[in-house]
Known about the structure:
- This protein is about 35% helix and about 40% strand.
- It has helices at about 15-45, 50-55, 70-80, and strands spanning about 55-65, 70, 85-100, 100-110, 120-130, 135-140.
Amino acid sequence: MRHGTTIQLRRKPNLKKEQELNDTERRAEDLAILEQLNLDYIHSDEASDAKRFSEFLAEDFIVQTPGVTRNREEYLEYIAKPRPIEDIALRDFKIRILGDVALIHGRVTYTMIADGVVQEALYTDVYQKREGTWVCVSACAIAPGA
C-alpha cells in the first residue's frame, strides 16, 4: 500500500437479516389472511353463502364430514341450502404454516335450529398458497348434526 492512499470500505448489506425481516412480515401477512379466511369459512357456513365459499375454495377442494365426502361442486350445492344451524361461535383455533401449506385446527359451537341443542364441532382446514393466493384445498369436520 502506498503512503497517502485512501481505501474506502463498503459495508455489505446484511442479506440474511433483510431476508428474515421479509419472512417475518410475510408470515404476519399470511397469518392475518388465514385468520380472515377462517372467519369467512365459519360465517359463510352459517349464512349459506356459497358465493363467498366459491371465492376461496380450490377447484380440487374435498371436504369430509361424518359419513360424507364432497367435492367442491357438491359442497357448494350443499352450502347453498338453508343450514340447520345458527349461532356459530369460534371457541379456539390454531394456524400452522408449513411453507406454502397451512393447517387450521379449530373448535366451534353452534345451535341446532330444530331442537335448540348446542353442539360442538372440531375441524381441520388445509389451505395452500397457489400463485400467491391462499385457497382451501381440504376440510374435515367432526360436526354432529351439521
